[in-house]
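Z., the sequence and structure:
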Amino acid sequence: MANTNKGRKFYIACTVAGGPIPLAQPTDLTQTQYEALTWTEVKNVASIGESGTNTNIVSYDELSTEVTQKQKGISNAGDPAVECARNPSDPGQQAMRAAAKTKYYYAYKTEDADAPDEDTTNSVYYNRGLVTGPTRPNGRNEDFILEIFTLGLVQTEIVVDPQPITP
């Protein structure tokens, strides 16, 4: 069954005290390493931009062929924007603001609310990268005060589909 984004949650890996922890550069993380991290939910998130791998298509026109030759080039893991209604007291937003002031890579997790029953997990998406921002789009008198963080992802996303919960 297809699902909506309703109930989706976004997290950053943090220490117990709520501060972000820089991850060693440039090491990719495995699913097991992601699952071992301590996660802090970023609250008041309205949208998470596009993620996933976008691979360049490299082309070459040879004189001896009628069709352009093509091959896969370098892949980009994405630069999704995370839009939040600004909440100065939210530990997740505080961690995002602190991470944005560094040049380190941080781990992220997005969790869907798509478990088919109470005996199954939700889908989870793991990635890591830089945090930039926040930018503030401002607005009119009845608009929420927003902050937008951009993630510069540096690893191929790990997608974990719903799994049975084992006791």
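The chain has two helices and ten strands. The CA atoms of residues 126 and 158 lie 5 Å apart.

Let me know what you think.
H.
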